[in-house]
Amino acid sequence: MHRKLTLIVATILMAVFTVSMAFAMGGGNARKGKFLYRKNCRSCHGATASDLSPASKTQAEWTATFSDKSKIKCSGEWTVTDQELNDIFSYLHDYAKDSPSPAKCS
Predict the structure, then answer these.
(1) What are the C-alpha distances in Å from 13 to residues 2, 8, 93?
(2) Higher pLDDT, 89 or 47
């Protein structure tokens, strides 16, 4: 009985953790993220568009990159809000090289 209860509690905790992580990142506006990425990110993070593009990483790699928001620094006078960062993440993640519709940047 004790083992069964422990298994149920562990399953519930894992489900809550998984759902909370899904809401922590994602659900942003990929279209707005594409605009923000092209306007701000691409000019600083690569000499050409192909140096840093959605297709330069897998979805898991983009998730890992954005897992610690404090490590993402923007140069210059541009500051990124959490919502803008979430929109950029959504764009990069949704069009990653292993996504159903990868970006066609050249």
Answers:
(1) 17, 9, 26
(2) 89
What pLDDT band is residue 32 in, cutting at 50, 70 and 90?
very high
Res 106: pLDDT: 45
pTM: 0.66
SS3 (DSSP) at 51: coil
CA gyration radius, the chain: 17
Count of CA atoms in the C-beta half-sphere (13 A) of 104: 2
Q: Mean pLDDT in the chain?
A: 79
CATH of the domain at 11: 1.10.760
Q: What one-character DSSP code corresponds to residue 65?
A: H
In a domain, 58, yes or no: yes
In which domain, by residue range, is 36 found?
A: 2-94
